[in-house]
Automatic annotation (TrEMBL):
SUPFAM superfamilies: NAD(P)-binding Rossmann-fold domains. It comes from the Eukaryota. The 3-beta-HSD enzymatic system plays a crucial role in the biosynthesis of all classes of hormonal steroids. HSD VII is active against four 7-alpha-hydroxylated sterols. Does not metabolize several different C(19/21) steroids as substrates. Involved in bile acid synthesis. Plays a key role in cell positioning and movement in lymphoid tissues by mediating degradation of 7-alpha,25-dihydroxycholesterol (7-alpha,25-OHC): 7-alpha,25-OHC acts as a ligand for the G protein-coupled receptor GPR183/EBI2, a chemotactic receptor for a number of lymphoid cells. GO terms for cellular component: endoplasmic reticulum membrane. Pathway: Steroid biosynthesis; Lipid metabolism; steroid biosynthesis. This is 3 beta-hydroxysteroid dehydrogenase type 7. It is a multi-pass membrane protein. It catalyses: (25R)-cholest-5-en-3beta,7alpha,26-triol + NAD(+) = (25R)-7alpha,26-dihydroxycholest-4-en-3-one + NADH + H(+); 7alpha-hydroxycholesterol + NAD(+) = 7alpha-hydroxycholest-4-en-3-one + NADH + H(+); 7alpha,25-dihydroxycholesterol + NAD(+) = 7alpha,25-dihydroxy-4-cholesten-3-one + NADH + H(+); (24S)-7alpha-dihydroxycholesterol + NAD(+) = (24S)-7alpha,24-dihydroxycholest-4-en-3-one + NADH + H(+). Its EC number is 1.1.1.181. InterPro entries: 3Beta_OHSteriod_DH/Estase, Lipid_A_modif_metabolic_enz, NAD(P)-bd_dom_sf. Belongs to the 3-beta-HSD family. Residues 13-285 form the 3-beta hydroxysteroid dehydrogenase/isomerase domain.
Length: 369
């Protein structure tokens, strides 16, 4: 908990604070930012769990709002010292239209930036994504790369396009004069695939496995590595960089940082089995039965079905041409830039991250029976 000797005079705003990552950021701030006097949690959908946070020494202000509405964002930002902008539409399954994804992820980020400038908030941390870099549509591997590794970032999908545009806006805004005459200091964090308590895609895999009699079928070769990072460590990096932004503005301002930890480099499916295996699921080897061309055919049929059924219902399976291509392309990072610039070290070990995630799935198991 916070030191009692610290002066509590800072106001933080977390947009998307009720999401998978956002909730962990909110809880981490309350546990590890002793200077907080007020924590504003801004989200389209407020979680009931926020109520339990209102009994502590920090004023927790729940704000139901939409980042696409500039006036709502400005009202939430006004008076905040730091904004952590995690709100976003994370959709690679075709649930939302490209227009909606752009409106939330790009226009929403523009609104946050302009609100900081207009109201005088000087520090902005943006939750970007590995997908700003890749994997690209050509299937080029990114193997243990860092922030300076050359890579042809070519995107066609609305989600990575929107994250790349939003990140660029945030970085370009670094140094802009805010109300009061001081410069805005911004940075962007690029988590790889986040996992942990509350991860909806892990929940989807688990329920798919239950429906298939405790089996999941391998679609991706074990040799394809995909970067994953525990949500608690992503939250920790946000808290840490937000704390260091003022003191290290010249070094950190306008920078991007990959966000990863000591989670092992594995294929996406093998990594998921680290948690789903101990919960009774097994991964069936189907490489001989399901060659890549057949998987791409099934993925394409899923996309066609989604389009045909859209007037009637939302059909959004995990397998589509985009998710298959991404999953099938190695993308892992290895860098010490965040450690060098603001002292980031993972707060949770791999073993602890794994145990916490398994316990969460097991708790789901109890609810699923
Ligand atoms: N999940 C990952 O693997 C991953 C990896 C890298 C980066 N990210 C980024 O992290 C951020 C959070 O992702 P997440 O996985 O927690 O997703 P999430 O969907 O669980 O959380 C996003 C939150 O934003 C809120 N939101 C959506 N539209 C909004 C709007 N118009 N106004 C206000 N709030 C809105 C949602 O209600 C939700 O609470 C996103 O910016 C995402 O791009 C996620
Ligand atoms: C059905 C199989 C082919 C199965 O292996 C598909 C897995 C697929 C759903 C995931 C594989 C890689 C994931 C993405 C990656 O972890 C990084 C992301 C960036 C982040 O900002 C948002 C989530 C995501 C796009 C993530 C989504 C699920 C995968 C595509």
């Amino acid at each position: 908990m916070a030191e009692s000797t610290e002066v509590r005079n800072l106001v933080y705003l977390v947009t998307g604070g009720c999401g998978f990552l956002g909730e962990h950021v909110v809880r981490m701030l309350l546990q590890r930012e002793p200077r907080l006097s007020e924590l504003r949690v801004f989200d389209l959908h407020l979680g009931p769990w926020l109520e339990e946070l209102k009994t502590g020494p920090v004023q927790v202000t729940a704000i139901q709002g939409d980042v696409t509405q500039a006036h709502e964002v400005a009202a939430a930002v006004a008076g905040a010292h730091v904004v952590i902008h995690a709100a976003g539409l994370v959709d690679v399954f075709g649930r939302a239209s490209p227009e909606t994804i752009h409106k939330v992820n790009v226009q929403g980020t523009k609104n946050v930036i302009e609100a900081c400038v207009q109201t005088g908030t000087r520090f902005l941390v943006y939750t970007s994504s590995m997908e700003v870099v890749g994997p690209n549509i050509k299937g080029h591997p990114f193997y243990r790369g860092n922030e300076d590794t050359p890579y042809e970032a070519v995107h066609k999908h609305p989600y990575p396009c929107s994250k790349a545009q939003a990140e660029r806006l945030v970085l370009e805004a670094n140094g802009r004069e805010v109300r009061g005459g001081l410069p805005l200091v911004t940075c962007a964090l690029r988590p790889t695939g986040i996992y942990g308590e509350g991860h909806q895609i892990m929940r989807d895999f688990y329920h798919q496995g239950l429906r298939l009699g405790g089996r999941l079928f391998r679609a991706i070769p074990a040799s394809v590595e995909h970067g994953r990072v525990y949500v608690g460590n992503v939250a920790w990096m946000h808290v840490l960089v937000a704390r260091e932004l003022e003191q290290r503005a010249a070094l950190v301002g306008g920078q991007v940082y990959f966000c990863y930890d000591k989670s092992p480099y594995k294929s996406y499916e093998d990594f998921n089995m680290e948690f789903l295996g101990p919960c009774g699921l097994r991964l069936v080897e189907t490489r001989l039965l399901a060659p890549y061309w057949l998987l791409m055919l099934l993925a394409t049929l899923n996309a066609l079905l989604q389009w045909l059924l859209r007037p009637l219902l939302l059909y959004a399976p995990l397998l589509n041409p985009y998710t298959l291509a991404v999953a099938n392309t190695t993308f892992t990072v290895s860098t010490d830039k965040a450690q060098r610039h603001f002292g980031y070290e993972p707060l949770f070990s791999w073993e602890d991250s794994r145990t916490r995630t398994i316990r969460w799935v097991q708790a789901m198991e109890g609810s699923a029976q």
